[in-house]
Amino acid sequence: MAKFKNFFATRWGIIGVGAFIGVIAALLQKLGNPGNMGICVACFERDIAGAIGLHRAGVVQYMRPEIIGFVLGSLIAAYIFKEFRPRTGSAPVVRFVLGVFAMIGALVFLGCPWRALLRFAAGDGNAIFGLLGLIGGIWIGTLFLKGGYNLGRVQKTYTSVGWLLPLTMLGFLILMIIFPQIKGEAKSGILFYSVKGPGMMHASLIISLLVGLAIGFAAQRSRFCTMGAFRDLILFKQTHLFLGLLALVTLAFITNLIVGQFHPGFVKQPVAHTMQIWNFGGMVVAGLAFALAGGCPGRQLFLAGEGDGDAAVFVLGMIVGAGFAHNFGLASSPKGVGPHGIAAVIIGLLVCLFIGFTMRKK
Amino acid sequence: MSIIVDAGGLSCPQPVLMTLNKIKEIQKGEILVKVDTDTSKENVSRAAQSQGWDVANIQKDEAGYLLTIKKE
């Protein structure tokens, strides 16, 4: 009885999924995605925010089908294996706010944990500071968890609640089909499309969508989570999820070497800046927000796909956060941090600490 | 009378934290752990086994799973 019937949840399962993501992410870059950004959940949700006009940063507007695929792939896996459990009610507004600041922190660094790993695996030394910040933020989160931090229990709810985010993603996909990209045009119908910058760089819709579906499926089965990898290591000395993360970095590194994408150094790295304090600081905020919300941005998408309405609220918080980040000049660019990025990191840290200190059960 | 850890409705790492705290408290014996997702079921099983406890039984019901973990 104690045996798992779910192969993906075994040690080799999680290693396989991490390796799969590492290879695919590096190859997606070859197929058109931006530099060291084969997959970046934060960047891609930011691009989606741009595609629907929540911000008007012209270089980062594209409805990324990978994100749509992540949610729908997870939904499909959850239904096949009878794990779809519609649930909500564990402090959704807190999760929204955590999502907003997680996105702002990630955009000060320029990447989610997945991209931090991919940047590292491609030789971008600046990513080391981001990863250290991520670990630092998660470490602070574990202190709160040990101190009784808890957002409360979920309630079982209507099946349709669990369907809302997947349906939203389906809606985004339909919009993309009704208003497809027109070469050289910044707008198609109601959708915005970048004509230059990272937003212009993408693999074809069908490849991006299929890859997203495959990763969403595998990650739902394996519970792959980059925040959980560090959290479980710090909190329980448990290496299960961490092995998946190591597999991702190793295989991305090897793939980068093979296809000629490994360029060690600090300067002129793609979509990256060298202000190390803020590479670190941005990811402290993001890491803490992920730890307080119980999952990295990817994991939140997979949870939303299996019916977790609170994870869906976190995702929406991240998309709205991207709007704030670009409208208020908080997001960094290759030139360095935005005009108000530093203030945003400090405010984000204070907000996360406020949440951590005040939401504890004794 | 078994000791019950009710982690229903809580997401990880809470069910694991609660189980490990109880394991630390009683050292050996039998604990029933209530969880509501497959992820929590797997995580609690993994954590218990890492502490040398056996997962003696997993019972599925409407609300999720009831795990019986044991150490003689």
What structural category arises from helix and sheet content of chain B?
A: alpha+beta
Note poorly predicted spans of chain A: none
Biggest β-sheet: strands ordered side by side in the sheet of chain B: 1-2-4-3
Distance, first to last CA of chain A? 35 Å
Mean pLDDT of chain B: 92
Helical content band of chain A: 55-70%
Secondary-structure element order of chain B, N to C: EHEHEE
The percent range for strand residues of chain A is: under 5%
Give an overview in words.
The complex is a heterodimer of chains A (362) and B (72). With 362 residues, chain A is mainly alpha-helical. Chain A has helices spanning 11-30, 41-51, 65-80, 92-109, 113-121, 126-146, 159-178, 205-222, 226-236, 240-259, 276-293, 297-305, 309-327, 341-358, and strands spanning 87-88, 155-156, 187-188, 191-192. Helix content of chain A is 63%, strand content 2%. A two-stranded antiparallel sheet of chain A has the order 1-2. In chain A, strand 3 (187-188) and strand 4 form a beta hairpin. The longest helix of chain A has 21 residues, at 126-146. The relative contact order of chain A is 0.24. Chain B has 72 residues and is an alpha+beta fold. In chain B, 36% of the residues lie in helices and 38% in strands. Chain B is globular and about 30 Å long. Chain B has a four-stranded mixed beta sheet, with helices on one face. Chain B is built from two helices and four strands. Chain B starts with a strand and ends with a strand. Classes of the chains: A mainly alpha (362), B alpha+beta (72).
List keywords for this structure.
heterodimer, A: mainly alpha, two-stranded antiparallel sheet, globular, B: about 70 residues, alpha+beta, four-stranded mixed β-sheet
What secondary-structure arrangement, pairings included, does this model have?
The complex is a heterodimer of chains A (about 350) and B (about 70).
Chain A (H helix, E strand, L loop, with lengths): L10 H20 L10 H11 L13 H16 L6 E2 L3 H18 L3 H9 L4 H21 L8 E2 L2 H20 L8 E2 L2 E2 L12 H18 L3 H11 L3 H20 L16 H18 L3 H9 L3 H19 L13 H18 L4
Helix pairs in contact in A: 1-8, 1-10, 2-13, 3-7, 3-8, 3-12, 4-11, 4-13, 4-14, 5-6, 5-10, 6-9, 6-11, 8-12, 9-10, 11-14, 12-13
Chain B lengths: L2 E4 L7 H13 L2 E7 L2 H13 L3 E8 L2 E8 L1
